[in-house]
Design a protein that fits this description.
Blueprint lengths: L3 E2 L6 E5 L3 E4 L8 E9 L2 E10 L7 E7 L12 E7 L3 E9 L8 E8 L4 E6 L4 E3 L10 E9 L3 E13 L2
Antiparallel strand pairs: 1-2, 2-13, 3-6, 4-5, 5-13, 6-12, 7-10, 7-13, 8-9, 8-12, 9-11
Length: about 170
């Protein structure tokens, strides 16, 4: 599954992601959810819903997509822009590069998804390494994901667009 770049707008490159759903069940957790296409407040979006559970060493539901078969050079851009709609909860935007070896390695930044369509811009400099000593290199970007993670709560976040942006 991969994202296809769409024609560039001014200082932006919109992606056309092929989202997939992943939950902590791959590691023995019991969180339940789904990612599905939906129309929310008049906009087509991909919506992640579910119940995050910490039982059995679990704790996440996610929707994510790959940026092609290898890595994608996003170094010409300053960050990632999302059009989001949610339930006023905190979510993670996680990215992976082709340098990361384990599935739990990533770079992450948090955001709040308010209950109205909102543009969220996360600069590449805001991504913190998670369970890795590697430094984030946007020239080696491979995967982007939106996660409900780390605490028990009801996830409900929708993403209408994903873009790379420059200031």
């Amino acid at each position: 599954m991969q994202a296809t770049p769409l024609p560039a707008a001014e200082a932006q490159m919109q992606l056309d992601p092929d989202w997939e759903y992943v939950a902590d069940g791959v590691m023995g957790g019991v969180s339940q959810g789904r990612a599905s296409k939906a129309e929310i407040a008049g906009r087509a979006a991909m919506r992640l819903t579910g119940q995050v559970s910490l039982e059995n060493n679990g704790g996440f539901v996610q929707m994510a997509f790959d940026l092609g078969d290898g890595s994608f050079d996003a170094s010409a851009w300053d960050g990632i822009e999302l059009q989001v709609y949610g339930n006023d909860e905190e979510y993670d935007l996680r990215v992976r590069t082709d340098e990361l070896e384990r599935p739990w390695h990533s770079f992450r930044a948090d955001f709040i998804a308010p209950p109205k369509w909102t543009t969220i811009r996360i600069p590449f400099t805001a991504f913190e390494p998670h369970r890795t000593d590697k430094s984030f290199d946007p020239a080696r970007l491979r995967r982007i994901g939106v996660l409900a993670i780390g605490r028990e709560f009801e996830a409900d976040v929708a993403v209408a667009t994903v873009s790379f942006y420059t200031e």
